[in-house]
Amino acid sequence: MPVWLREYSWRQSPSAVYLSLPVRGLRVTPNSIFCTEQYLKVSIPPFLFEAILYAPIDDTNSTAKIGNGIIFFTLYKKEAAMWDSLTLENATKEKLQCLRENAVLKAHERAKEETEAKKVTKQEHKKYALEATMKLEEAERKRIEDLKEKERLKVTKELELWKKQQQDAEKQRRAQKEVELHQQVEQLKEKKKEKIDKTRIPSEVTSKTRLKTTRGCHGFHSIFSENLKEEQLPAPRSAATIKVNFTSRVFPTALRESRVAEEEEWLHKQAEARRTISADLSELEDLKEEEKNPDWLKDKGNKMFATGDYLGAVNAYNLAVQLNNKLPLLYLNRAACHLKLRNLHKAIEDSSKALELLRSPVPDNENARVKAYVRRGTAFCQLELYVEGLQDYEAALKIDPKNKIIEEDAEKIRHLIQGTTQDS
Amino acid sequence: MSVPSGPERPQVVAHVQQALPFTLFDCKWVPRSARLLCLGSAARGTGLIHLYELRGGRLALLSEIEKTKPIKCGTFGATSLQQRYLATGDFGGNLNIWNLEAPEIPVYSVKGHKEIINSIDGVGGLGIGEGAPEIVTGSRDGTVKVWDPRQKDTPVANMEPVQGESKRDCWTVAFGNAYNQEERVVCAGYDNGDIKLFDLKTMSLRWETNIKNGVCSVEFDRKDVNMNKLVATSLEGKFHVFDMRTQHPTKGFASVSEKAQKSTIWQVRHLPQNRDIFMTSGGAGSLHLWKYEYPAQRSKKDSEGAEMGVAGSVSLLQNVTLSTQPISSLDWSPDKKGLCVCGAFDQTVRVLIVTKLNKV
C-alpha cells in the first residue's frame, strides 16, 4: 500500500498552473515523475502522489523543478481558463483506472516515437560522417596522383629537351667533321697532283661518294682516328691461362642456402646405402642364400645361446647386424651374450643401441625394453657402477612394475649403495 | 647524411612500356644517343637485335637484325665513341662484334666457348679509362676468357678449371680496376656461390670467396678507377657489397650483405653519375634503389696489425614493382642521369626515369 502524499499547494494563472509538492528527505529523480495530458503522478516508493487534472495540459512544455525538498510543477494549460480545482472531483475508480491506462499508453507511444526519431537521426549522422571521410581520402589520393603526374610530365619534358640537345650536338659535330674531311681531302688532292696514280683515284671517288652518306663520313674519319689511337694503345696482352679450382659441389644445380639441409640429408642417406651394399659385397660372396637373411641368422644365434655357444651366437648376430643394422632384437640378444661372456662394456653398448632403436614407448616394445634396461643395469652393477645400474633397474620397473625379480634386484642394489656411502 | 623520406625520395616513373614479339635477354643504351638495343631470341630459335629510338612517349623501331643463334648478352664497353660497335655473346658460345650500320658480317667473330655465353663485359672503350679495349666472356662451360678485338681466334687470358675438375657454370663477369694501362681485374661469379677475382697484370687469382648462393650478377662501381666497391647479387634475394680498397691476407675484403626480397636478384647496376647509388632487379618483377654509405673509417688494424677493411651500410631509397615476371636486364643511360631501361621475361621493355637523384 503506497503512502499518499496529500500535502500540496497550488495556484494558477489563466495560462498555467503552479503546483508545489513537498517531498522532504526523499530522493527524486526525473523517472519518478510521470505526466500526460490529464494525469500527473509522482512515485517515490513507497510514497505516491497522483492527480487527475481538471483540464488537459500541454505536457511537453510543462516543467518540473526538483530541489530544496520540493517539486515545483509549472503546467501550461491547453485552454486558457481558470480551473475550479486542481483535480477532477467526482472521479470514480473506473474512470481513474481508464485514465491511468490511457495515460500510460500515450506515454508509451510517445516514447516509441522518440526512439524512432533518434534512430533515424543517428543513421543520418553516421552516413554523413562516412561520406565526409570518403571525400577526404579521395582528396588525398588525388593529391598524390597529381603529384606523380606532374613529376612524370616534368621529366618527360626534360627528356625531350635533352634529346633535342643531343640531336643538335650531333648535327654540329657532323658539320664540323665534314668541314675537316673536306680539308683533308683537299690536302690529299694536292698531294696527288704531284703523283698521278690511277689506282688512287677510284678509291678517292668512292670515298667521296661515301661522304654523302651520313655514317660513311664517320667511317672515313674513324680510320684516321683509329690509326692515331692505335699508336697510343698498348699491344694486345700476351696470352696466358689461369687455372681455377671450384668450391666442390656434388649437385649440378646452383647452390641455394634454403636447399642445403635437404641436400645434406640426401647425401647422408646415399652414403649409408652405399656402405651396407659395399659391406655385403666384400665378405659374403661364399655364404649360402639363407645365411644372408638376418632373421635366420638371429634364430641361429638364439639357438647357439640356448646351447651355451656364446661366441658363436655373437658371430651370428654380428653378421646379421652387418646386413641390417636397424633390428633392435639383434642388439638385445647380443647384449645378453656379451653379459655371459663378461664383455661388460660391449653389453652396455649393445643394450644402449637397442634402446635407441626402441625409442617409441608402445606396448609391443615393453618386453624388449625391460630386457634392455635389465641387461644394461646388470652390466653397470658388475662394473660396480651401482648408481647407473639402479637407474636402469628403476626404468625397467617403471615399464613393468609387477616384476618381482627386478624389484628384489633393485632393492639389493640400493642396499649396496647405501652400504658404500655409510662406509665412506 | 640521412636518407630523405616522403616526397623527397627518388621516384621511379615509368615513362614508356613496349611489348616485344620475342624473348628479351638483354637491353642496352647506345652511348651518346636516345636509342636503345634489345637483344634476345625469337620464337623460332634465332637471335634478334632490335634498335629503338625514344620518341615522345613511345619507342620507335629503327631496325631489326636477325642472326642464327639466340643472343644472350651484349656490351658497348670496348668500342670507341665514334664506332659504337656492339659485342654480343650468343647461345652457341660465339662472341661477335657488330657494326650496327652494316650488320650482315661481324667485324670480329670467334667461337669462344663450347656452351652458352652467359655474361659479357667490355673495358677500355667509350673514352672511359685507359689501356687496350678488351672483352671478357663467361660461359656455362666454366671458363672465363678475355679477348682483344685485334687478336683473332685466341683469347688473351683464359681462366679454366683445373684438369679433371668438374666445371661450374660461370654466370657473370665484370671488369674493374682499369685505372692505368697495365692494371685490370676480372671478377667472375659462378653458380656454386664462388666469386673469384683474377688479376690480369700478374695473371693470377687475387681473391676468392663463396657467398653460399649462386652468384647472379657482379659489378664494380666504376671500371676505370682503383677498385672501390663490388656488388654481388645472388639467389635467395641476397646481395653483398664488398669494400675493395683494403685486402686482408686471410680474411679478404670486408662486406655488408642485405636480404632484399625472397626471390633471386637478377641484376645490379650502378648509376654512372654517382657510384654510391645502385639498382637491383628482382625475380618478382621489382626494382630496388639502394644507397651505400661509407663508414667513418674505411680500414682498421686487426689484432696482428694487418690492415682490414670496414664495410659501410646500405639503405633502401625506393622500390617499385613493375611486372610479375623477373626483370632480367637493366641498364642506366650514361648520358642522362636517372634514365634507365629494363627488360623483363614478360617480353616487355620499359624505359624508366628515376627522379630526384640530385637530392640524395
From TrEMBL, chain A:
<dbReference type="GO" id="GO:0043005">
    <property type="term" value="C:neuron projection"/>
</dbReference>
<feature type="domain" description="CS">
    <location>
        <begin position="3"/>
        <end position="87"/>
    </location>
</feature>
<dbReference type="Pfam" id="PF04969">
    <property type="entry name" value="CS"/>
</dbReference>
<feature type="repeat" description="TPR">
    <location>
        <begin position="370"/>
        <end position="403"/>
    </location>
</feature>
<dbReference type="InterPro" id="IPR037894">
    <property type="entry name" value="CS_DYX1C1"/>
</dbReference>
<keyword id="KW-0175">Coiled coil</keyword>
<dbReference type="GO" id="GO:0007507">
    <property type="term" value="P:heart development"/>
</dbReference>
<dbReference type="InterPro" id="IPR007052">
    <property type="entry name" value="CS_dom"/>
</dbReference>
<dbReference type="GO" id="GO:0036159">
    <property type="term" value="P:inner dynein arm assembly"/>
</dbReference>
<dbReference type="InterPro" id="IPR008978">
    <property type="entry name" value="HSP20-like_chaperone"/>
</dbReference>
<dbReference type="GO" id="GO:0005634">
    <property type="term" value="C:nucleus"/>
</dbReference>
<dbReference type="InterPro" id="IPR052004">
    <property type="entry name" value="Dynein_assembly_factor_4"/>
</dbReference>
<dbReference type="GO" id="GO:0007368">
    <property type="term" value="P:determination of left/right symmetry"/>
</dbReference>
<feature type="coiled-coil region">
    <location>
        <begin position="105"/>
        <end position="198"/>
    </location>
</feature>
<keyword id="KW-0677">Repeat</keyword>
<dbReference type="GO" id="GO:0007399">
    <property type="term" value="P:nervous system development"/>
</dbReference>
<keyword id="KW-0963">Cytoplasm</keyword>
<dbReference type="GO" id="GO:0003351">
    <property type="term" value="P:epithelial cilium movement involved in extracellular fluid movement"/>
</dbReference>
<dbReference type="GO" id="GO:0036158">
    <property type="term" value="P:outer dynein arm assembly"/>
</dbReference>
<dbReference type="GO" id="GO:0005576">
    <property type="term" value="C:extracellular region"/>
</dbReference>
<keyword id="KW-0524">Neurogenesis</keyword>
<keyword id="KW-0802">TPR repeat</keyword>
From TrEMBL, chain B:
<dbReference type="GO" id="GO:0120293">
    <property type="term" value="C:dynein axonemal particle"/>
</dbReference>
<comment type="function">
    <text>Key assembly factor specifically required for the stability of axonemal dynein heavy chains in cytoplasm.</text>
</comment>
<keyword id="KW-0853">WD repeat</keyword>
<keyword id="KW-0677">Repeat</keyword>
<dbReference type="InterPro" id="IPR036322">
    <property type="entry name" value="WD40_repeat_dom_sf"/>
</dbReference>
<feature type="repeat" description="WD">
    <location>
        <begin position="135"/>
        <end position="148"/>
    </location>
</feature>
<keyword id="KW-0053">Apoptosis</keyword>
<protein>
    <recommendedName>
        <fullName>Dynein axonemal assembly factor 10</fullName>
    </recommendedName>
</protein>
<keyword id="KW-0963">Cytoplasm</keyword>
<dbReference type="InterPro" id="IPR001680">
    <property type="entry name" value="WD40_rpt"/>
</dbReference>
<dbReference type="GO" id="GO:0006915">
    <property type="term" value="P:apoptotic process"/>
</dbReference>
<dbReference type="InterPro" id="IPR015943">
    <property type="entry name" value="WD40/YVTN_repeat-like_dom_sf"/>
</dbReference>
<dbReference type="Pfam" id="PF00400">
    <property type="entry name" value="WD40"/>
</dbReference>
